Amino acid sequence: MGEPVIGEFELIERYFARCAPGDARVVLGIGDDCALYRPRAGYDLAISTDMLLAGRHFFADTDPEGLGHKSLAVNLSDLAAMGAAPVAFTLGLALPKADPDWLLAFSRGLSQIAAEFSCPLVGGDTTRGPLAISITILGEVPAGAGVRRSGARPGDDIWVSGCLGGAALALRLLEGRARAAPGVLEALLPALLRPHPRVALGLALAPWVSAMIDLSDGLVGDLGHILERSSVGAALDVEHVPGAHALIELEPRMRLECLLAGGDDYELCFTALPGRRPAIEEVADRLDVRLSRIGSIEPGGALRFADWQGQPYRLPDGLDLTGFDHFG
Amino acid sequence: MGEPVIGEFELIERYFARCAPGDARVVLGIGDDCALYRPRAGYDLAISTDMLLAGRHFFADTDPEGLGHKSLAVNLSDLAAMGAAPVAFTLGLALPKADPDWLLAFSRGLSQIAAEFSCPLVGGDTTRGPLAISITILGEVPAGAGVRRSGARPGDDIWVSGCLGGAALALRLLEGRARAAPGVLEALLPALLRPHPRVALGLALAPWVSAMIDLSDGLVGDLGHILERSSVGAALDVEHVPGAHALIELEPRMRLECLLAGGDDYELCFTALPGRRPAIEEVADRLDVRLSRIGSIEPGGALRFADWQGQPYRLPDGLDLTGFDHFG
């Protein structure tokens, strides 16, 4: 057959045991019918699932170490948006073949971010098939304190962390849909390939915010989820949305698409009462994270675009601001 | 494009909302960054993940309603083997296209078994790709009482529930690798397509057993996991392993392969002190489940085959008893 013979159980043992750093509350880790975890009294469990497919969410030849990192990062980002702390994760992995080099690199990337965020692998399933990665993550949040998408109210500020559009521009450069000066792609690649989930930020913000979401599909689409769930509208101050530096070189249409609908930012977008500004600015200072006010929640259900004076912002014709929808 | 246009969020809303029956401890269900679940004090959380791929675990043209059923059934079976009660599950679903008929049938099968076992869908992710189903299930078990594979001790009885080999024979009939009288396939198909997870049995047995596993890859392979994890050997009384009636018609080699290594049985195999026999037989009577003693645990690490008098059982030459291994 020309391919290394390795059993499913040996595969898990050899490559993924190291993704399971010790945690006293993990009563039983990988290797049994189920893992066992002892929840902490007074906490709710936050649960999220993401499925990543080759050719859809990443290139089939993507660096496997980065892929291991990103697979868990996108799930950690969901916990961050809830204000939850990571607890553990499970991995469903379909592989075309058991390639030792690929597995070694993938599990290295996965184990590094698992260790960094104290989020051990507690179970999983491997099978042969088109490359697919399905991770379910568990987190914990003080009972009743999980931050939802549905809490935004008219008058709330809209905030966003970090700078947007860098990952989207990197993707466009990789795909040849945009051009940039030498060095730009290299500088942007980490944003696309190794996003850093805002877990500490989510935890610090949770007491002060009314709604929160992580930006995976683009600002307009993801903010739209908050608006829909909260039954409110918003004025988005386009000129205050912080963009990655490299966006400045782009023509306006592509710049705004990357900025407003780029996807893969994994920053946090949240709403809060104006009275929370000092607390939120203190969090920004303490964690050394840029937090920008980019608009305000309004009655109704519409999202309108405004300039810094609140006047209508005229978007270029033909702008595509739809978030990434897998079946749209 | 000729295919129905349906968004990812509309897809979840339309087809999978009904998989989420009410449960007061599900603080927040599908539709946010995470689901929120309030664990019950004094309980450990059991977690298991299974990934099912078209062409590997089921035929691509499998009846979608049965597939919805089986996808959750195999996960419920993992909980059963731990002695855990179902709590909730998440669904990762990759689909070649958003076919309304397929989705309607799949979600109907899934919602029926979810309701039957009070196990609501709390989150998930859908994406376009080769058909793949990844379910992570959560269950609860009194703290410290989760039944592991590692507790078997020399002198323990080995037990199995139900009758084995029916699903394996059905698969061989479907694939044309075996022949049977008219009506046999129809009678066996439910075992293959709609396995009934032994959740109530697992809960009832948990106080009395030393180790337990569910039979997904075949008796010999799965019992082997108990032996390996427990660092023990066993004598398997081949003549007392209860087989599905239709196996009698098969030639010996195929009969024994179906019986001992068939896979897809989703029965429970467990070990217990001989002093537990009355309690275990009471469980069998109360739940109206056949429980058979099929051998005993021994020191060492070997699995040997015995007849009902304890003498070596001579297996036919060329018998393949390896459990299904996705990378073997």
Question: Which secondary structure elements does this structure contain, and how are they paired or packed?
Answer:
The structure is a homodimer of 328-residue chains.
Chain A: H1 8-16, E1 26-28, E2 35-37, E3 43-53, H2 64-82, E4 85-95, H3 100-116, E5 121-128, E6 132-142, E7 157-161, H4 166-174, H5 184-193, H6 199-205, E8 211-214, H7 219-230, E9 233-237, H8 252-261, E10 268-272, H9 277-287, E11 291-298, E12 303-306
Parallel strand pairs in A: 4-5, 9-12
Antiparallel strand pairs in A: 1-2, 3-6, 4-6, 7-10, 7-11, 8-10, 9-11
Helix pairs in contact in A: 2-3, 2-6, 4-5, 4-8, 6-9
Notes on the protein architecture:
Two copies of one chain form a homodimer. With 328 residues, chain A is α+β, with helices and mostly antiparallel strands. Chain A has two domains: 135 residues, 2-Layer Sandwich (60s Ribosomal Protein L30, Chain: A), CATH 3.30.1330.10; 150 residues, Phosphoribosyl-aminoimidazole Synthetase, Chain A, domain 2. Chain A is 32% helix and 24% strand. In chain A, the strands form three sheets. A six-stranded mixed beta sheet of chain A has the order 8-10-7-11-9-12, sandwiched between helices. In chain A, strands 3-6-4-5 form a four-stranded mixed beta sheet. A two-stranded antiparallel sheet of chain A has the order 1-2. Chain A is globular. The N terminus of chain A is likely disordered.
